[in-house]
Amino acid sequence: MAIGPVLWLGPLLMVSLWGSSAPASLLRRLGEHIQRFQESSGLGLSLDQGGVALPKEGWLVQPLDPFNASDRRSFLQRYWVNDQHWTSQDGPVFLHLGGEGSLGPGSVMRGHPATLAPVWGALVIGLEHRFYGLSIPAEGLDVAQLRFLSSRHALADVVSARLALSRLFNVSFSSPWLCFGGSYAGSLAAWARMKFPHLIFASVASSAPVRAILDFSEYNDVVSRSLMNTAIGGSPECRAAASAAFAEVERRLRAGGSAQAALRAELGACGSLGRAADQAELLGALQALVGGAVQYDGQAGAPLSVRQLCGLLLGDRDNCSSPAPYRGLRRAVQVVTHSLGQKCLSFSRAETVAQLKVTEPQVAGVGDRQWLYQTCTEFGYYVTCEVPGCPFSQLPALPSKLELCEQVFGFSASSIAQAVSQTNSYYGGQTPGATQVLFVNGDIDPWHVLSITQPLGPSESALLIPSASHCLDMAPERPSDSPSLRLARQNIFQQLQTWLGLAKKSQVRGGV
Prior knowledge:
By secondary structure, the chain is an alpha/beta fold.
């Protein structure tokens, strides 16, 4: 459990190495890019202020299989600590949970936990998720090892980390522990409170997709609506242009020959486009590019906002060399790939499968193999566009997504469907029955349809922020933040004030 110095260059070097890493889901790359940008920007500000204590890096020895006491194998799980505002041993502990990627020092220096810690004298801890970042077991990522990767294993880690860190930092028995998390980690925060209410006093779950789903067609429903949302720069014309751009891409794919060769060069398709599966890889990446502009709209570090994307799709209509929407999509590809520092938007299906089969930990990667495993064994979340009215290509279809689980891990489609059903049965889907959990979502975030957007009871609260994107409430505050976002953050503060008031009364009754 030794605490070592912070390696500040780590996150920055990881960003620069992405271009040479394995083919990845573009949405995951965008999320990691934005997180690293915001963390490095926030940390830079902190370092310039002088006298600010740096977060400490530590390691916990965790059981590889917490559900089998006879299995003595273990792994090292990384955590970060910011104790500069911690005023007493009976003060609250804000636990920021990591999700499907690495967790850096910014996890305890920005966002809700760090922003609110000075008010209540809280100790802030960030816990990296097992099998991601640097918390990967030494034996690697083969299927035999990955069976120890699940949300249930992650929650067991939260329990053992809470107990171990309480001892390490001499935290009072009566101190309330509050969990924070965004996206998948937001679900973990809610589930931690639900499954272990005696250990986790309350949770704030931002953009938490608590309902697992096999065919996530609703994702593109939200993207389609958001492209028409004038409040964020969309319009019906923008949505129509996006649809026209995809139709032009499909026309060129069907034409083959020189048209297809030009398409490869113009859209950054580094693999062959001769097979339908390879074409689906490109079309899927283009869908992710448009979806990413919506999902991360308006966030610091995001390469494209909805307003910018629509400007590209609708611009330069007088140039007759090619349809304006297609030219705009091509330009959007250039903007995004340049921002991410990568040459390719997509690869061939065979290359994608080959890279996902690599079992050696990739320090510079974003956990693609691990997250695919979790979607195959727990969550699904496969974004499709096969329903009438979807403005993009129908490829890649759901069978193609499910086939990836079989090609990489050997799982059948029926086993994936069963796993999704079991996840919802275990956690309760969108009716989890948790108390003292605040669910926070933005209404243009495609993931909000899998979360909880209306209060389910007096102690199961929800906020739905107009025109807000994925986990935007957790992002560093900016002068450009909308009034609705500022109000939502005030509501989060007030909810924490209520909860911590209850905790304080409990401490007084207990004689603390």
